[in-house]
Design a protein that fits this description.
By secondary structure, this protein is mainly α. It has 10 helices and no strands. The longest helix is centred in the N-terminal third of the chain and has 19 residues.
């Protein structure tokens, strides 16, 4: 956990430097290079699996999430620990510029070397769900290639660990979203890991 704290501290220091320089509402390039890139990478590809890739994420989803962080409407543990402060002073214009920037980047490449059995199981759940266990298919909202659309986020190529963490947060209601809680409420840990293996491979 020390490196996570270190990254957070660096981000806060960079934000402080901007404030001292009189940049109270940094525009998109400054915000991306000075702050967002610390955890999410200059090209939107996060250097660590605990922070999500943002490259090619849908603009609407990014815009909504940044506003939710800023307004404290998204209150899962990582949101409170990192993004509430990071997004706290962002204007709607800056949020829109950041969303424009990341959504226009090339998408992350899927990971290789995953367990083929686990990937196949995850694909089946993603596309068809598990009717007997009240697990709904993910494809209905996130699209057949998991590229997302509008308010529904891109999941293809995302870090396995991040996907699992978010699914668990939805299941426990630590990250409150009625639709996602209904989708994953009956999902087992194994099913979550299978789905994450599949999505990260795309």
């Amino acid at each position: 956990m020390r490196w996570i704290v270190a990254l957070s501290v660096v981000g806060f220091l960079l934000m402080g430097a901007n404030a001292m320089a009189g940049t109270t509402a940094p525009h998109e390039p400054d915000m991306v290079t000075d702050t967002c890139s610390v955890c999410h990478g200059n090209n939107g590809i996060s250097p660590t699996a605990w922070f999500p890739d943002l490259a090619a994420q849908t603009k609407t989803y990014l815009d909504n999430q940044l506003k939710n962080f800023r307004d404290h409407k998204r209150a899962d543990p990582y949101a409170k620990s990192y993004m509430w402060s990071m997004a706290g002073s962002l204007s709607n214009k800056t949020i829109s510029q950041i969303a424009d920037y990341f959504s226009a980047l090339q998408p992350p490449k899927g990971s290789t070397g995953g367990d083929p059995t686990r990937i196949a199981a995850g694909k089946a759940i993603f596309k068809h769900g598990v009717t007997s266990e009240n697990v709904l298919p993910c494809e209905a909202c996130h699209g057949p290639t998991a590229a997302g659309s509008g308010m529904f986020p891109r999941l293809a190529g995302q870090h396995r660990e991040y996907i699992v963490a978010q699914l668990k947060a939805f299941r426990s209601n630590a990250r409150k979203n009625a639709t996602m809680h209904a989708v994953v409420g009956h999902m087992t840990n194994k099913q979550m890991h299978d789905i994450a293996a599949y999505l990260s491979s795309l």
